[in-house]
């Protein structure tokens, strides 16, 4: 991106640009940033998408069908993973899934939106990490609320022979505590890696144009073909990572609700 | 990596957190709590309506089957009744005809007997006439042949003996 410096930096796309300072609280300044703009755009597009499904017709049109497809997808996932009690948590998991999905897909937009350069919001671990911590907190609150101290039995899987408990319990505890990190990092890494890959191959195409016909044409065409494939793959990853985030959240909530 | 480098900047984390909390919170409240349950309720209502309609259709089908069954039974009963009526009428007609025939038979028999009696009487009187005519003729013949006058009673007795063997 920073072609003006003559050198190519595939990481520059992840820079959050401050646009306008809003206020300062507790020594920290809060700015309107490109990240905020893209999050807001994702939220507004998501809202418009959902609005199309609010006709509430008995025989749904295409748009309502699409929206109901998403809600049905999430609600059936919650029903399979948690059971009937999962309905309570579906609004949260649905919001999470749709928000991440729309942020991911909006990050694939290759052009600037109103002068704001494209940024994949979910490629920042400050965002994914907060969402992961939020999911993890819900698990903790629900777990301790429903089961009290009995929630700790989560660290002793059913049927563990008692001599093994001192060894199993710490392992289970560590694997439990790692969850928010794995949850947040998975999405952040998948988005970052994918966008770096796209940037690199897109840059190959640009650079090959300056390398003459003999080398530039085959390299450029090959990169272009690869680029098309990678773009398709990244769209898939955008969906899958949103799904994985929601799926793991539902599985963790299941642990808190049903204790294995 | 800007994600890490920018952490050093005073505004970065605060802004990310603020905007995420604001926007994701709005998404959760407006879409998760506001719109999602309504869409889910629509889907549930539709599923319930489809199930209800299917149940109603099944009930209507059963009712139609029952009605058809009833109709068939009634039809069978009516046909049986009609057949019985026809049979009764036939039987009655046959019985009436028999009775009439017997009556006519008896009348004819009576007439026949009377006629036979008439014939017998006629034959008897004819026979008697023949006897007297024959006796007269015999008397005349005897008188002509032998000149003896035969008494009418004698002639009659002789003729009777010849006629009756």
Automatic annotation (TrEMBL), chain A:
GO molecular function terms noted in the UniProt entry: proton-transporting ATP synthase activity, rotational mechanism
Keywords recorded for this protein, A-Z: ATP synthesis, Cell membrane, CF(0), Hydrogen ion transport, Ion transport, Membrane, Transmembrane, Transmembrane helix, Transport
Record-annotated membrane-spanning stretches: 30-51, 89-113, 125-145, 151-171, 183-204, 210-228, 235-253
One GO cellular component term: proton-transporting ATP synthase complex
Membrane topology: Multi-pass membrane protein
Origin: domain of life: Bacteria
SUPFAM superfamilies: F1F0 ATP synthase subunit A
CDD domains: ATP-synt_Fo_a_6 (cd00310)
Subcellular compartments: Cell membrane; Membrane
Functional note: Key component of the proton channel; it plays a direct role in the translocation of protons across the membrane.
Family: Belongs to the ATPase A chain family.
Protein name: ATP synthase subunit a
Gene behind the chain: atpB
UniProtKB/TrEMBL annotation, chain B:
UniProt subunit comment: F-type ATPases have 2 components, F(1) - the catalytic core - and F(0) - the membrane proton channel. F(1) has five subunits: alpha(3), beta(3), gamma(1), delta(1), epsilon(1). F(0) has three main subunits: a(1), b(2) and c(10-14). The alpha and beta chains form an alternating ring which encloses part of the gamma chain. F(1) is attached to F(0) by a central stalk formed by the gamma and epsilon chains, while a peripheral stalk is formed by the delta and b chains.
Cellular localisation: Cell membrane; Endomembrane system
Source organism superkingdom: Bacteria
Organism: Sphingopyxis panaciterrulae
Gene: atpF
Keyword Cell membrane on entry: yes
Protein task: F(1)F(0) ATP synthase produces ATP from ADP in the presence of a proton or sodium gradient. F-type ATPases consist of two structural domains, F(1) containing the extramembraneous catalytic core and F(0) containing the membrane proton channel, linked together by a central stalk and a peripheral stalk. During catalysis, ATP synthesis in the catalytic domain of F(1) is coupled via a rotary mechanism of the central stalk subunits to proton translocation. Component of the F(0) channel, it forms part of the peripheral stalk, linking F(1) to F(0). The b'-subunit is a diverged and duplicated form of b found in plants and photosynthetic bacteria.
The family this protein is said to belong to: Belongs to the ATPase B chain family.
Name of the protein described by the UniProt record: ATP synthase subunit b
């Amino acid at each position: 991106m920073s072609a003006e410096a003559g050198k190519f930096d595939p990481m520059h796309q992840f820079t959050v640009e401050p646009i306008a300072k809003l206020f300062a609280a507790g020594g920290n300044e809060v700015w309107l940033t490109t990240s905020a703009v893209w999050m807001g755009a994702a939220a507004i597009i998501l809202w418009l998408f959902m609005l199309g499904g609010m006709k509430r017709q008995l025989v749904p049109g295409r748009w309502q069908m699409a929206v109901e497809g998403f809600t049905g997808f999430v609600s059936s996932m919650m029903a399979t993973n948690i059971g009937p009690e999962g309905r309570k948590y579906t609004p949260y998991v649905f919001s999470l899934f749709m928000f991440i999905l729309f942020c991911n897909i909006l990050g694939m937009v290759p052009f600037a939106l109103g002068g704001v350069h494209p940024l994949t919001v979910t490629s920042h671990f400050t965002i994914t990490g907060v969402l992961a911590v939020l999911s993890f907190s819900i698990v903790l609150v629900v777990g301790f609320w429903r089961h009290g101290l009995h929630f700790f039995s989560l660290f002793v899987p059913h049927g563990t022979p008692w001599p093994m408990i001192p060894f199993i319990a710490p392992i289970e505890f560590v694997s439990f505590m790692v969850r928010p990190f794995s949850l947040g990092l998975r999405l952040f890494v998948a988005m970052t890696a994918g966008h770096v890959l796209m940037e690199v191959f897109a840059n190959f195409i640009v650079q090959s144009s300056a390398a003459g016909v003999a080398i530039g044409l085959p390299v450029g065409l090959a990169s272009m073909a690869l680029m098309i494939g990678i773009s398709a793959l990244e769209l898939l990853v955008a969906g899958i990572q949103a799904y994985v985030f929601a799926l793991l959240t539902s599985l963790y909530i299941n642990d808190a609700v049903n204790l294995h | 990596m800007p994600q890490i480098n920018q952490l050093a900047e005073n505004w970065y984390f605060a802004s990310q957190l603020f905007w995420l909390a604001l926007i994701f919170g709005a998404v959760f409240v407006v879409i998760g709590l506001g719109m999602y349950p309504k869409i889910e309720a629509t889907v549930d209502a539709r599923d319930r309506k489809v199930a209800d309609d299917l149940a109603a259709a099944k009930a209507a089908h059963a009712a139609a089957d029952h009605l058809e069954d009833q109709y068939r039974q009634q039809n069978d009963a009516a046909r049986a009744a009609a057949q019985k009526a026809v049979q009764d009428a036939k039987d009655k007609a046959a019985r009436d005809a028999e009775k009439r025939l017997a009556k006519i038979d008896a009348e004819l028999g009576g007439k026949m007997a009377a006629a036979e009696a008439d014939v017998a009487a006629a034959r008897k009187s004819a026979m008697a006439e023949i006897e007297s005519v024959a006796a007269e003729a015999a008397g005349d013949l005897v008188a002509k042949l032998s000149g003896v006058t035969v008494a009418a009673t004698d002639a009659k007795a002789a003729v009777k003996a010849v006629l009756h063997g």
